[in-house]
Amino acid sequence: MRAAVIHGAGDVHIENVPDPTIRQPTDALVRVVRACICGSDLWPYGSLPHSDTEQRIGHEFLGVVEDLGADVAGFARGDLVVAPFVWSDGTCEFCREGLQTSCRHGGSWARDGIDGGQGEAVRVPQAQGTLVKLPVAADSALLPSLMTLSDVFPTGYHCAVKAGVTPRTTVTVIGDGAVGLSAVLAAKRLGAEQIILMGRHRERTDLGVEFGATDVVAERGEAGIEKVRGLTGGDGTHTVLECVGLAAAIETALGVVRDGGVVSRVGAPQYSQVPMDFGPFLRNITRTGGVAPARAYIDQLLPDILDGRIEPGRVFDRTVGLDEVPDGYQAMADRKALKVLVTP
User: Which of 17, 63, 71, 299 would be a feasible disulfide site paired with 32, CB 3.0-4.6 Å?
Assistant: First the structure.
């Protein structure tokens, strides 16, 4: 079959790779119907050292079940399913606690011999605990929004949930990428009445306003902090959803959070230290967040998508075929695309 591989920074290709097969009775084979390129894929795309050995890439996909291991119950060939961005057994104590990202028997796509999502098919380990059946046809107009359940929408939702967003809290979202826009949508779903979106790309922040942002702050650094505080009577917001992953974003978050507030971060951190010194300590600032257990949120978010109450799939602003995936990476790296949908 054909799939995306990466050899180093800026070097993504479509190559022939071995066809997936059932190896364990807990496996399923899924023919990929939709995949996408994640903002976190851009980190290796921008910095991975070159290697003559290709690495598979991609961790978001939905597709049709083609085959099932003997121990997989609750699914049938032909079912449309979505896969969270990590696979998990659904039975260990961490999974039962809703922390599937720490599953004792789970793992990540495109690692340790597991297929990546950006290809024609995927062998899904621990399929019964990982996959979620979708009650629509494989050509449904809802597929882009259902695709977001694999990662980006649950990640934004996790950020808001960990921050404790409620109708009584004010919110600042830092970042106008797909995760930041998903966080705006999540904060609105949780009832927040004031949602300040910090971003400087007009077409993205316009979508953020449609998703529920009440204010947009394009300024950065101290100017941005001052603008947010001006919108909140000088105090800052109760919660800050940091969806970028750079040190400057954390510094801004600490500048705009209200005393006694919460900074929740889900941007993949590209830094090793966080400035949580005596100043934030005196202000009683709480820091939380982390990698989102997407599987824990899919069941509660799915009905709103099926009913048309939310449309997180609007974050996709470009669609490419499998052969065009390298162009999709470059478009996202150049900020010419917000998030790229892939149709193998």
Answer: 63
| 3-state percent breakdown (helix, strand, coil) of the chain, nearest 5 | 35, 25, 40
Q: What is the sign of the dihedral through the CA atoms of 72, 135, 304 and 38?
A: positive
DSSP 211: H
228-237 residue pLDDT tens: 999 999 999 9
Q: Which two tokens stand for residue 184?
A: 């705006």
The helix or strand, by DSSP H or E, that contains position 163, with its residue range, turns out to be: helix 152-163
> Per-residue pLDDT for 34 more than 90?
yes
Q: What are phi and psi of 231, to 5 degrees?
A: -80, -10
Torsion, Cα 47 329 342 27, to 10 degrees, reads: -10
Closest CA to 265 of 252, 278, 281: 252
Q: How confident is the model at residue 287 (pLDDT cuts 50, 70, 90)?
A: very high
CA-to-CA distance for 100 and 115, rounded, in angstroms? Answer: 19
Spell out the domain ranges in the chain.
2-151+293-343, 155-289
For residue 189, pLDDT beyond 90: yes
Cα dihedral 222, 225, 231, 233 sign: negative
Tell me if 66 sits within 8 A of 29, measured CB to CB. yes
Kindly indicate whether the domain formed by 2-151+293-343 is annotated with CATH number 3.90.180.10: yes
Q: Name residue 341's beta-bridge partners.
A: 36, 319
Task: Please determine whether the domains at 2-151+293-343 and 155-289 fall in the same fold group of CATH.
Answer: no
φ, ψ (nearest 5 deg) of residue 274:
-120, 130
Determine if residue 259 is left, alpha or beta; phi over 0 gives left, psi from -120 to 50 gives alpha, anything else beta. beta
